[in-house]
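tokens incoming
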């Protein structure tokens, strides 16, 4: 299903200006408007932007300083303003190893995109945010979208005994 992204506001956070240009260009290819894209060189700048007007989506690099994508996501998820706390955060990273993906998921990322990005991949992840919204979980240790992507009912001990170890 094609979406009209023209009115959506998005923040692109990456300390590499070239990567921000690639993401902007890719977003334009899937229908976002240049005027609705805000660049940030760090997570710290994103937090400043959020004080003025929350965007509809944040795409953040994993590794940038002084506030990286993981810390940015944690701060957004723990924010006192619900309008900010529920903003979809997409982590964009060149690190496809399982522990990096798990760290982004555990920080509260809504979606994780591995570089190099493509218009199809980016569109697919944005469409997933729209088409398959996950319940929001708030606990002492975690705030963010439900980390389980399957709708399987929990069946206690028996379910665990048949689980495949990764």
């Amino acid at each position: 299903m094609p979406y009209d992204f023209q009115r959506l506001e998005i923040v692109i956070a990456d300390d590499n200006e070239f990567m921000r240009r690639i993401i902007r260009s890719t977003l334009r290819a899937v229908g976002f408007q240049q005027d609705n894209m805000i660049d940030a060189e760090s997570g710290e700048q994103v937090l400043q932007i959020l004080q003025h007007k929350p965007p509809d989506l944040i795409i953040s690099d994993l590794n940038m300083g002084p506030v990286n994508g993981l810390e940015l996501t944690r701060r957004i998820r723990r924010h006192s303003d619900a309008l900010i706390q529920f903003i979809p955060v997409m982590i964009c990273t060149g690190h496809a190893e399982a522990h990096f993906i798990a760290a982004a998921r555990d920080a509260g990322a809504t979606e994780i995109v591995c570089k190099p990005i493509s218009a199809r991949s980016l569109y697919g992840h944005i469409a997933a945010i729209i088409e398959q919204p996950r319940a929001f979980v708030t606990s002492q240790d975690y705030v963010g979208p439900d980390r389980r992507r399957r709708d399987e009912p929990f069946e206690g001990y028996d379910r665990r005994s048949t689980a495949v170890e990764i």
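note: The chain has a mean pLDDT of 88.
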